[in-house]
Design goal:
Elements (H helix, E strand, L loop, with lengths): L11 H10 L2 H6 L8 H14 L8 E4 L5 E6 L32 E2 L22 E5 L3 H5 L4 H5 L22 E20 L10 E10 L4 E9 L1 H4 L5 E7 L8 E2 L7 E2 L21 E10 L2 E6 L7 E6 L13 E11 L21 E10 L5 E2 L3 E3 L7 E6 L6 E6 L8
Parallel strand pairs: 3-11
Antiparallel strand pairs: 1-2, 2-4, 5-11, 5-14, 5-15, 5-17, 6-7, 6-14, 7-8, 8-9, 10-13, 11-12, 12-13, 15-16, 15-19, 18-19
Length: about 425
């Protein structure tokens, strides 16, 4: 019998060796349900080899509650920093929100990775100092998407879409939203998001997130939670980030799926599950999220807005000569998105916005960071283009709610 401490998954070196030796004919013969051509397969293998090139030693690996493998990788050898001659800059504090801070009715979500969490094999679900956790990307995961470009896209049903700034002709019938936005020059913003696990069966995904965007084609940085069984193999909500520099066409990827996001904080794992989830009529678990453009980078914060809460950044250079390269976002947007083409999954808790506290999904204390500096309470406009299935209601109250909104709904087939 293997001991509890013996891993039941290949170590990082073995994983890389298997990728290097993988052959299209043997791979597809063993997986007849997958439809991936030889040329695409070679591109997928090359992407994994490139993504992990130069990572010679991994001091620790573990699995999450869904058996996804995470490898602890030295910060300086993560894909987005490979070849860099300088260390990542020190993170700044994000701007303080206006007004007094009062205790929330919601329960703050703790970071996923902590030394007191142990996986089912006895491994600590935490990384040693100087390393961060990368979710292991496998050939099987890439091959499920048929092409490498499909793997990078936000949805398997073609390119992604911004709820406001994408042209109406771009997959308007596939993406459904209930969200709240403000048109304002900004360097990012902030909200508390409560966490849910809507039932996504054969549909694609359901999420709640931030978008900071500008331009045509649109450029965005995004973060939130997402239930996406086809990607993560679980019906639990997972922490995700996404970006695009050209309207979701040829740039962009989730998490660390490509060389884009620079992670500096070891306490969070992109693509890892989040929990506990909120309870209908009971406890509400929430995650504080913020983006802030500073020093040429889009810094992401989770669980607070001090420098110690900074998780990492998207370099402004990803956006070329576009508006997000200089922090010139023009749109702050928050809320829910679901994707399918025949029957759309629930959004948030599955309850309409009118259900309110302890029943509906929410974003509260919504603040944006104007280009002049500081933080101001948002003045949001609700949008619910599919009210039969999903709704959004914006309100303002005393702290700790301030500017807030409820959103969500049961989904279904009549979501025009």
């Amino acid at each position: 019998m293997p001991s509890r401490n013996e891993p039941h998954f290949p170590d990082f070196s073995t994983f890389i060796d298997r990728v290097n030796s993988a052959e299209h004919a043997r791979f597809t013969t063993a997986r007849p349900a997958l439809r991936v051509g030889a040329e695409e397969f070679d591109g997928m293998r090359a992407h994994i080899q490139s993504l992990y090139a130069g990572i010679e030693t991994v001091p620790h690996s573990f699995v999450d509650d869904n058996d996804q493998i995470f490898d602890c990788v030295p910060i300086r050898s993560q894909p987005a920093l490979r070849g860099a001659t300088e260390a990542p800059p020190a993170p700044p504090d994000a701007p303080a929100a206006p007004g007094p801070r009062t205790a929330s009715q919601g329960v703050p979500l703790r970071p996923q990775l902590r030394s007191d969490r142990i996986d089912k094999f006895g491994h600590a679900m935490a990384c040693p100092p100087g390393t961060i956790a990368l979710r292991r990307i496998t050939l099987d995961e890439l091959a499920r998407r048929s092409t490498l470009r499909n793997f990078f896209q936000k949805s398997p049903l073609g390119t992604g879409r911004h709820p406001r700034l994408s042209p109406p002709s771009v997959q308007a019938g596939i993406h459904k939203y209930a969200h709240a936005f403000q048109i304002a020059g900004n360097l990012g913003g902030h909200s508390f998001i409560n966490i849910w696990d809507p039932t996504v069966g054969s549909q694609i995904f359901s999420l709640s997130q931030h978008w900071y965007a500008a331009g045509s084609p649109v450029q965005t940085v995004e973060c939130g939670w997402q239930v996406y069984p086809g990607k993560y193999g679980t019906t639990q909500p997972c922490l995700f980030i996404y970006w695009t520099a050209d309207g979701y066409q040829n740039t962009g990827c989730y998490n660390h799926d490509c060389s884009a996001f620079v992670q500096t904080n070891p306490n969070w794992a992109f693509g890892g599950t989040l929990g506990p989830v909120s309870v209908l009529g009971g406890a509400q678990y929430e995650l504080e999220v913020a983006f802030y453009f500073n020093g040429g980078n889009w810094w992401l914060y989770l669980g607070g807005t001090s420098a110690s809460n900074a998780v990492g950044y998207y370099p402004g250079s990803l956006f070329g000569s576009g508006p997000l390269a200089t922090g010139a976002a023009s749109d702050v947007d928050y809320g829910g998105e679901v994707v399918d083409n025949t029957a759309w999954p629930p959004m948030g808790s599955g309850m309409f916005a009118s259900s309110g506290w302890q029943w509906a999904a929410y974003h509260r204390d919504v603040v944006y960071y104007p280009t002049a500096g500081g933080g101001v309470q948002a003045s949001l406009t609700p949008s619910q283009p599919s009210p039969n299935c999903f709704t959004c209601e914006v309100n303002h109250a005393d702290p700790p709610w301030n500017e807030y909104f409820f959103h969500g709904g049961p989904g279904g087939t009549d979501c025009a």
